[in-house]
Amino acid sequence: MIIQEVIDLIEEFAPLNYAEGFDNVGLLVGDNSTKVSGALITLDTLEATVDEAIDKNCNLIISFHPIIFSGLKKLTGRDYVERTVLKAIKNDIAIYAIHTALDNQHKGVNDMICEKIGLKNRQILIPRKDSIKKLTTFIPTEEAEKVREALFSAGAGSIGNYDNCSFNITGKGSFMGNEDSNPVVGEKGKVHYEEETQIGITYPAHLESPILKMLFKAHPYEEVAYEIHSLENKNQHLGMGMIGELEKVVDEKSFLEQLKSTFNTGCVRHSKLLDKPIKKVAVLGGSGAFAINNAKSAGADIFVSADFKYHDFYKAEEKLVLADIGHYESEQFTKNLLYSFLSKKISSFALILADTNTNPIHYL
């Protein structure tokens, strides 16, 4: 396989369109036409990670965090970012990063945290806006089923746990082709009336291109009449954070102790304990202070995340407990998630989980 084929598989799972606007995702270093000898899957890409890739004959690093986040104006090796990129280039090692595209995936980073904690009835904490579009098109009724099935095959018509969703109205369409037209039905220069079916179908915004290609391929008319609208609906299967419920109610200290053990962290920083049972748990991998109010609004008993600052803990306002388990710790299982997905798709070269511990924080 070449690198682009691996990228296509990754983005089948977590399309780059899912990523936040501030992020830097995708192929950061390397040539996408290069044949892959092996892929090292890691949370972070550092010099030590590149060294491990060299030792294990991997010319592709699949990283959660992007080593290049803001622009690089020079490559002189003056800091750890430039040194890492230079070493990768010198050794013909490509670097690909997925980051917030996987954060926003329904079965991504936060679902993995929920799995480790043992949460059921999981839902997205902050559903994504502006990610659903609606296509309306008009087809001769006798051809409607064929076109509808073609659109379904391209990914249109999926709503949450349901597929093949559409709304159909039968009516009479009219048109008149000019002298340059080549109408499939009717005659040029004459008004023609045709029994047509109006199909309304929603789709994820990132699939617009293949869906329109399929529409033009399957539609019988020379000129395809269609409309596209962006919907305000929130996408309940795409977004930041998750919230779920424990199988059984536990007390606060027991839950915090379990967090410390499960995520193997040297410290769990938390807000004031409220002497209330823990049942409903909100989670967000990485820096999650921006979602504190969302966790409160969702009725969470505790919000598990990382990188809370001093004043962030005041925002708990005795309505829930804030638990900071550490940035690395909250995302440490992400590489296992990527490995599990890719190992079911790839058998032509070695997929290797990185051994290098990239956690920059240590505890006494």
Provide a quick synopsis of the model.
The protein is built from 11 helices and 15 strands.
Structure description:
It is globular and about 85 Å long. It is built from eleven helices and 15 strands. The strands form three sheets. Strands 5-10-12-13-14-11 form a six-stranded mixed sheet. It has a five-stranded mixed sheet with strand order 1-4-3-2-15, sandwiched between helices. The protein is of the alpha/beta class. The longest helix is centred in the middle third of the chain and has 13 residues, at 141-153. Strand 2 (38-42), helix 2 (47-55) and strand 3 form a beta-alpha-beta unit. Helix 6 (141-153) packs antiparallel against helix 7 (208-218). It folds into three domains: 3-103 and 333-353, NIF3 (NGG1p interacting factor 3)-like (Udp-n-acetylmuramoylalanyl-d-glutamate--2,6- Diaminopimelate Ligase, Chain: A, domain 1, 3-Layer(aba) Sandwich), CATH 3.40.1390.30; 109-126 and 239-325, Udp-n-acetylmuramoylalanyl-d-glutamate--2,6- Diaminopimelate Ligase, Chain: A, domain 1, CATH 3.40.1390; 132-233, Alpha-Beta Plaits. The protein starts with a helix and ends in an 11-residue tail after the last strand.
